[in-house]
Amino acid sequence: MEKEGELTKSIQGKVAEKQDIERPKSHKPGSERQEKAEQSDLDVSQTAHGFARESMDFRDLYKGYSKSRVILLPVEPYLIHACWEVTHKDIEKAKQRLGNDYRSSQAVLRFYDITNIIFDGTNAHDTFDVDIDLQSRNWYVDLWSPDKSYFVDLGFKTRDGFFLPVTRSNVV
Fold this sequence. Notes:
This protein is of the alpha+beta class. It has helices at 2-19, 32-39, 88-98, and strands at 42-46, 52-54, 69-76, 79-85, 106-113, 126-131, 138-142, 150-157, 163-168. The model is unreliable at 18-31 and 36-62 (pLDDT under 50).
């Protein structure tokens, strides 16, 4: 019993010591420090090493990855989220390949049902196209069956049905 009492007192002492530690103070909008920070060219937040970071406009941070790509993410059994990036270079290549047909072409996600097969480029069970707005950079697609395997080619489809793929996704 005596050891339990000593242990309890020791733990209570350690807790009390920790409570006495000075906590960082927050700075409310309008405080002197906040006003100085707004006038400064530096971000007052500190990194893990204690050095101030230069402020930057994070909208300029994303410049893309210089590679066209499309990624499929399962959301629910009957819903897939597709997100993509198509480089300016690949759009220019598509314009050259399609010529005058480019203006009337439609950006599409061409879905391939490859359930339980080794895809050789021609043997998909089924395909279907989903018209997209290329600039939206993402799209949700409803599916008919939750037990199928799909991938997509993002590309351009002309009025006469010709399809020019730009990039291929992962399989979901």
